[in-house]
Each structure stands twice: as structure tokens, then as C-alpha cells.
Amino acid sequence: MVSHYASQGVGPDLALRVYTSRLLGGDRKLVLHGGGNTSVKTVVRDLIGDEVEVLCVKGSGWDMAAIEPAGLPAVRLAPLRRLRARASLSDEEMVRVQRANLIDPGAPNPSVETLLHAFLPHKFVDHTHSSAVLSLADQPDGEARCAELYGGRLGLVPYIMPGFQLAKKAAEVFEADPEVEGLVLLKHGIFTFAETSREAYERMITAVTLAEEQLARGRNTVVFPAARLPGAIAHPAEVAPILRGACAIASPERAGSYKRFVLDFRTDPAILDYVNGAELARYSQRGVVTPDHNLRTKNYPLLVPAPAAGRLDDFKLAVGAAVDSFVAEYHAYFARHNARQTVPKRELDPMPRVILVPGLGLFGLGPTARDAMIAADLAVSTIETVSDAEAIGRFEPIGEAEMFDVEYWSLEQAKLGQAVEKPLAGEVAVVTGGAGAIGFATARALQRAGAELAILDIAADRACAAAETLGSSALGLGCDVTDAAAVRAAFERVVERFGGVDIVVSNAGAAWQGRIGEVEDTVLRHSFELNFFAHQSVAQNAVRIMRAQGTGGCLLFNVSRQAISQGPEAGPYGLPKAATLFLMKQYALEYASDGIRSNAVNADGIRSGIMTPDYIKSRAQAYGISEAAYMSRNLLGREVTADDVAQAFVHLALEHNTTGSFVTVDGGNLAAAPR
Ligand code: ZN
Prior knowledge:
There is one protein chain. This protein is of the alpha/beta class. The protein folds into four domains: 2-216, 3-Layer(aba) Sandwich (L-fuculose-1-phosphate Aldolase), CATH 3.40.225; 236-413, L-fuculose-1-phosphate Aldolase, CATH 3.40.225; 428-606 and 641-666, Rossmann fold (3-Layer(aba) Sandwich), CATH 3.40.50.720; 608-640. It has a seven-stranded mixed sheet, with helices on both faces. The chain has a seven-stranded parallel sheet with strand order 16-15-14-17-18-19-20, with helices on both faces. Strands 10-13-12-11 form a four-stranded mixed sheet. A hairpin with a 3-residue loop joins strand 6 and strand 7 (189-194). The termini are far apart. Bound molecules: zinc ion (ZN). The site of zinc ion (ZN) has 5 residues, from loops.
């Protein structure tokens, strides 16, 4: 690390700081998703060229597991230390002073725990939210337990919300016994410090190991006595759309429009042990294990009853009632604590971010798949911490007022409304034939509009490669859409991954040719399998899931010019496409009452699986024109691209009040125009 960063002009102090920060950040029992922070006090040259003593401290938005020197912005140390003489300092003032003293004015905001790092004298300061330490500290007698375990090696700091007052208190606790190797922040986490990066890191590991050893002693043999559950539990793919639909927030301005959440399902024996416990309503409803989790998980998860197999109607009713009371309680919680604020707060959306389902597991919820993943990770970590806490005593975190102060922290409130929401944010889209030219262009365009993507393709490797190109949250699945069982299985996978489906682009297709009076029957039947029955199978699965969600949906079919205007020897292709055009209208008619829209795109002349390079060449030769001229035989005289088709699909996905319609994308061809 030292030699690697030396070549980039980064000194050994910061290089070692990056190294041990990554060691800590890479262990999910210490630090998760931006939690925790580290610092080093060193000397750098400022922009003028003067040497200056600075604190390089983790910047907000950086994850310790993958931190770089740029993620540890340098702040002038002397002005930070002078702040300690003040009696009070608002969070806004604190951020301004920190920013005003950055060596690089473009650096990210230093951590909210910057002053705590600055007020301690040690060169290296490490802070984690260790699960084991929290299992001990989040107890009614957490202070006594930590005092006994650490026997003076660590100072104990009472719970105070992160910021100036906590920094002052932590420095006082340290100064009362300067021999300590670190500090336990009760109901929050742990700091260790030393003159070298190695010693600070080793002190952290030693302290955490002591806590882990303590948790291994004197445990209750049965931590969570099990509740009685139904004999057979429904499948997560049946449960998720019901939960997702119940948590969607109907737009007050636009009928049939929703703010939707993406779901992330987790289960394993430890999760099941926890969610199946008879006292789940007690230990799961106490609050967050460390304060900043509530920005991602809210204070409490939603509890729903165990979903008995074959009794999903009952389950749906129970979920609706559970969500209603969760929302009512959230409003009451907000009103209760907002009443004591000098500056009134803006209420956040009242929906849960974690749902616990006895018999099944847990779901994380978020406006994106990434947010849902983070909520689920934090929920899994919470279960570990609470399980250990309950194994040796009683889990008792900070109180509700303290949680409110973090959830409605002024700096977080200031961020509200600043992010521009994409038009399809929170929507889950499935594209069949998604690795082909039109399918992939459409998937990419939907993703750019904010949707989460599942790419289905007959070639599993190409589906996965296409999904990888789109990014980590996209799902790629091999699926032969002419196999109804495979289509159903693929949709189940999508629902397990994202919680549901909102947009389906039924795009997979292929062209068969033959003069209609002479063509082999099998050719026509093969074409009907892919160009008609597969569309029906995809749409049926989509509609089943959309109806379970109860928040409408959008079916999109890739039809063809051939459905309107026959070409010579194109009958085997055009006939099923014409039937699919009719299919689109049938879905529009029969599912409009569910808010499900159904539309199509009629494209023509796109370089794709159907129009292979050889085919284009042979047609151009047959017409006696160049390939370019052949590809632009339309009124506009321009080649039509897969991206043009993709834009039409996105447009139809956004056309909130359009159904039973189709858009022609062919550069202009009046013979194929609707009339
Ligand atoms: Zn912290």
C-alpha cells in the first residue's frame, strides 16, 4: 500500500490509513454500508505549498471496504481543535467549519464524527459498529457489562447523538483516564486509537474478540422459543408481490400512479429462528442496534402473519391491515416527537424498510434494488446482534426520542427533495429476448429511466452478460419463452429477486419464411409457438403477478410491420404477429379494470436477430441497391435503429393513460400505418 500510493504522491500515513480502513470495512461484523469511520493525523502541503497539520477523516458517501485516499479528505486540525472551547455548535455550523478548513475545496464532506477524531490526541483513530460490542452495549445493564469485560481498558461514553456534544464528551472520558486504548460508545459502537495504524487496528480486533468470547459464555440454550406456524408456508414468489403492493404509495395527484419499492428477500436458519420466535413482537420492535441504521431501516420492521400455503387471500387481507396500522403508528410517532421541535420537521414516507415474515424470512425494501439490498443487509446484521443480545440478556437499544433525532436530523432533512427522481424509479421491468439488439437497447433505455431490469434470453450466458453490462443490480436469466413452465420459473426468479413486476416487454421473436400455400405446417406451427404463444405465456405470468400487487402494470409487445402489411413469403412470421397484435388489445380490454395497460410497437427494418447481415446483403443485391440504401427504404430515408424502438417502448411505459395502442417505428411506411 505504502509503495503503491507513494507513486501517486500519497504519503505513508494516509496509505496505511487506507489499508487498515479497508481491513475493518471488509468485515461485515464490524462495518456495513458506509457505517463506521477512521482518521489519521498527518502533515500535508496545502494548495499554497505550506506544510500544515491535518486530520484525514472518512468522507461521507465513502465505504470503508473500498476506500481510497480521496475518501479521506484532509481538514486543518488546529481550527477543529479550537472549536472544543465552545459551549455549543449546531450541526450546520459544524459542517460549515469543516468544509471551510478542507485542504481540497472539492473534497466530500468529512464524517459527522470528525470532531470526535480531532479532539482525541492519537495519530490513528478507528471507529466501528461491531455487532458483538453492540450485543453487550445494547442491554439494560450494558454499561456494567462493558465495564466488567474491559476492566478499564476502554472508557465508557454514555449515549449522545453524533455531533459536537458527543465529541466533547468522548474527549472528556478519554482525558479522565488517558491510559485507555479506546472508548465504547454505549448503544452506538466502539473507538480504538494508537500512534500506529497497526496498533489501533489490533486494539479494535482485541476488544471485539473479547466481546465475542463473552457472548459465547453463559448463553441461553434456546434463545427464541418458536411460535406455532402453519404446516405449509407459501412460496416467497407468491408472498412478495402482496407485500410490495401493500407498501406502494398511491400518488395523490395522478390516479393509478404509485411510488413503489423494490424488495430483497433473505432467509437462512438464523433468520428463520428469529422470525419464527413466539416473542418476535417484543424483541423485533425495540429499535435499531446503532443509531444511523434507522435512516435505512426505519426504527421498527413491519411484522406480518405467517403466510399459509393456499390461503393467500387471507394473507393479503392481514398484510393490508398490518401496513395500515404501521402507517398510523408512524404518523403518531412523527406527531409525538415533532411537537417538541423548535423547527418543525418534514415527515418522511411512513412505509417500512424491513418486513419480517414468520415461516419465510425477511424482506428489505428500498426505492432502488441497491437500497433494498442495504436495508436487507442491515436487517440480517440486526438479527445477529439482537440474537446474541437475547442469548445473554435483553436487547435494549436507544429510546424512541433518540431514534427520532437521528431519523429527523437537520442535515438529513436538508437533503430532502434534492435528488431528481427518475420517471420509472422503483419499477421492475422484464425484457424477453433481452440479449438481442432491440431487447438490450430497450432494457438499457428502461434502466436509464430508473427501472430495475431482468433480462430473459434463450441463451443464459448472453442474458447474464447483458445484465452484467447494465450493472450489479440487473438480473440475467436463461429462458426459452416457448416453454410455459420455464417462463413461469423465470418470473418466479424475478419476483424473488425484486419483489414483483411492473413492466414486461415481450420482445423475443424470430422470422420464418415460406410461400403460404406451400409452406410446411411445422414451420407455421414453430412460428406460432414463438411469435404468438410465447407472448401469451409471458403476458399471463405478468398479469398474475401484477394483479397480486394490485398496483396496475404495463404490458408491451414487440409486434411487427407484418401484422399490418403483409410481405411476400412473410406469412409464417406475419400471421402469428397479427394474432399478437390482437392479443395486445385483448389484454387491454380485459385487464384495464386492474389498471394494467397493454400496448405494442410495430418496428420494421432494424438490424437485429431477424435481419442478419447475410439477409440484408442478399436483399440489397436482389433490389440492386447498396445495403445503406436498402436499410433506409422509408419515407424519411433514414435507417431505423434498435435505440429508436427502445425509445418507443419507454414512451409507452410512461404513457400513463394509453392502452390498446401501438406505435409504428419504421421511418415511415404508409402501407403499414394504422387506418
Ligand atoms: Zn458511529
